[in-house]
Amino acid sequence: MNDQASPQPAAATEPAAATEQVAVTEPAAATHKLSLPVQGMTCASCVLRVEGAIKGVAGVSAAAVNLASNKAVIELTDDADLRAVEAAVRSAGYALQMPSRTDGGEAPELQEFDAASPHDDEFKILRRDVAVSAAFTLPVMLLSMLPMLDAVHAWWPLTMDETNRILLLLTTPVLFFPGRRFFRGFLATLRHFTADMNTLVAVGTGAAYAYSTAAVLFPQWLGLQAGHMEVYFDTSATIITLILIGRMLEAKAKNRASDAIRKLIGLQPRTARVLREGNEIEVTLAAIRIGDLVVVRPGERIPADGSVTAGISSVDESMISGEPLPVEKQEGDAVVGGTVNKEGALTLRATAIGAGSVLGHIVRMVDEAQGSKAPVQKLVDRIASVFVPVVIGIALITGIVWYFGIDAGFTPSMLRFIAVLIIACPCALGLATPAAIMVGVGVGADRGILIKDAESLERARSISTIVLDKTGTVTEGRPAVVAVHVAEGNAAVLDASTLLALVASAEQPSEHPLGQAVLRHAREQGLEVRAPASFQYEPGAGVIAFIGEDAVMAGNRSLMKSYAVKLPEQLPEELRLPGRTVLYVAINGRFAGALALSDAIRPTSAQAIAMLHRQGIDVVMLTGDTEDAARMIADEAGIDRVIAGVRPEQKANEVQALQAEGRVVAMVGDGINDAPALAQADVSIAMGSGTDIAMETADITLMKSDLRAVVDAIRLSGATLGKIRQNLFWAFFYNVVGIPLAAAGLLSPMLAAAAMAFSSVSVVSNSLLLRRFHRQPLGD
Length: 780
Known about the structure:
By secondary structure, the chain is an alpha+beta fold. 46% of the residues lie in helices and 18% in strands. It is built from 26 helices and 26 strands. A hairpin with a 3-residue loop joins strand 17 (534-538) and strand 18.
C-alpha cells in the first residue's frame, strides 16, 4: 500500500476574489547538455574567449570549455540555435565541431562521444608539421653555427651574405608553413583586440625573423654592412620547432588521457545480427532499431540493451557491475549492451540503443565530467584573463630598459624582449587543472567509479563523515543462509549439507526470495539439487515437496503447526539472533532442523569501513531497522555509530543534523530509496549495478556493489587534487622564475622555447601518473 497522501483538488479551497490579480509564471525552458569538440585552442586565454563567445548566445545557460579535452560542455535550452553558437565560436577565431544529428530524434551513436579522435587528428597533423619544421631547422642551425667555428671558417666556401640569404630561404617555410598556426591565431586575436599564447609566439618569432630579413635584404636601413653575422633565423626556426615538438608530445599525452572513453567505446561490437521478416541479417549498430530482435551467439558482445526473448546463457557483466562471475540469463531477463555472452545463444528485443543505452549514459557522464571545471580553476581563469597582456607589457619594458636604460644596443634588447615573450607559459596554466581532472575522471571510470563533475571530485577530498544506508549498502540487500541447524536425534543420519540440499530441492520451483536464497546457497556450496516429484506452495507459510521418497516441508511455525509437526521449545542462539528469519524443516512429518536467513553483510564492508577509519573519517549507519538488528550488523562491520528506526523521509534530517555539527557529509545509498538524504548530503554516492541507479543525479556513482569503491573514490579525489596542486606549482614556477631570468638576459630565446615546450608536456605527463592509482591495501 502506498502511504503517500494523494494530492487534493484545488476546488476544495475557498474561491479567490474576482479582483485579485494572479501572477502567471512562465515555466522554465527545458535545457539539455552537449559536449562538442573545439579546434584551435592553445592556452587558458583561448578557453576564456571561447567560453565568453558561447555564453553570449541567446539560449545558452552555461558553458565550460576544457583545454585538456579540447571540448566545450554547453547547457542550452531546447529552442536555442546551435548554429548561432557555432558562428559565435568561429567569429572568436576557433572552430566548433557540430554533432552529426541535432534534430532531437534518434539517440546519437556512441562514437560521437569519443574524445580520442580530435587528439588523434591533432597528433597526426603536428607530427607532419614537426617533421617539415625539423627538416628545415636542422640545416638552419648548422649553417648558423658552423661558420662561427675557427676550424670551419677558414675553408667555408660561402660568403656570409650568401649564407644569410640561404638561411632566409630555409627559415621562411618554417614560419609560414608549420608555423602558420601561430600567425593565424595571432591575427584572429588581433581582430578582437585580445591576446593569447599565439600572440607571444608570433610576436617573438616574427620580430626575430623580420629583423633578420631586413638585415639581409636591406642592411643599410639598420646601419649594418652586407654579410654581417647579426641575423637570428636560427632563433625563429628553432623556437617554432621546439614549440611544435612540445605541442605534439602534449597531444600524445592528451590522447592517452582520453583512454577511458576510448575503452568504453570499444566495448560495443561493430555489427549485430537482427531478425527481420524471419531472416537473420548482419547490420551495423547504427541500423539497429528499438524493438528489433537481436541474435547474440556465444562469445559475442551484446550490441544493445534489451530483454531476453529466447535462450539460456550466462553473461559477463563485469564491465557494469565489476563482479567477475557471469550472471545467468533466461527469457524475461534484462541484458546490457557491451557485456559478453559466454555460453548459450540468446535472442533479445532491443530496448535502448546508442547513446540512450546504459553504456551510452556512462560514456556521456565521463565525457561531461572530463570537460567540467573544478572550483580551483576559477583562480586560474582570473590569472589567465590578464596573463598574456601582462607578459607583453613586461617584454616591452624589458626591451626598453635594456635599450635605453642600459644602452645594450638594439640586438641584445630585442633578444631579451623575445625571450620574455617565449618563456611565458599560458598553456601550462591552462592545462594544469583540466589535465588532472581528465585523467582522474578516466581512472575512476576504469575502476567503476563514475564522477559527475570536477566539483564533486574536489568536494570528495574534504569528506569528514560518511553516512551509510544499511540494506543494500553495508549488507547484500537480499536474504542469505547464515546458519544451518540439524535437530537432535537426526545428526546420525542427516548432516547440514544433506539437510540444505533437501530444502533447496524442495524450494527449486519456488519464486519466494527466501526459497531462492536457499537454492542459491546450496549451489554455491556445490550441492546436488534435485527436481521435486511434486510441489505445493502454501501462501504465507512455506512449501511442501516430495524429494525421492521423502516428504519435505520448509516454512514458518504456522506451516509446521498446521501439519502437527512438533517443534522444540527453544532453538539454538545462532538461529534466534536479531534480524534473522527462521525456516523450519520437517521430513516425513518430523522436525529435522532449521535454517536461519538474514540480510548478510557484504564480504568487503568491514574492510572498507576499517580503511575509512584509518583515513580519519567517521562512519554512521542509518537504517529503518530495529536497534538490535542494526547494532548486530554494525558490530560485524565495525561501525561505531548507529541511527536506527529512521524512515526514508527522515534520513535527510539526520544528514542535516550532522552537517550542523560542522561536518562535510557524504551519503552512500542505492540512489532511489535514499533520494532525500542523497540530495541533502555534501557528496552523494549511489551504489548499484549501473542499470537501476540514479546515475544522472548522484555526485559519484559506484558501478560495483563494494564499499571499498567509496574508499577508492575519496583517495582518487585526494590524488587528483594533489596533481592539480603540483601542476599549478610548476606552471607558476616556470613563469615566476623564467620571466625574470629571461628579462635579466640569462636565458636565450631558444632555451626559453625549450622551457616553454617542456612546461606543457610536464604538466600533462604529471597528470598521467594518476593512471598508477591503485587500491590501498588494508595494512597501509
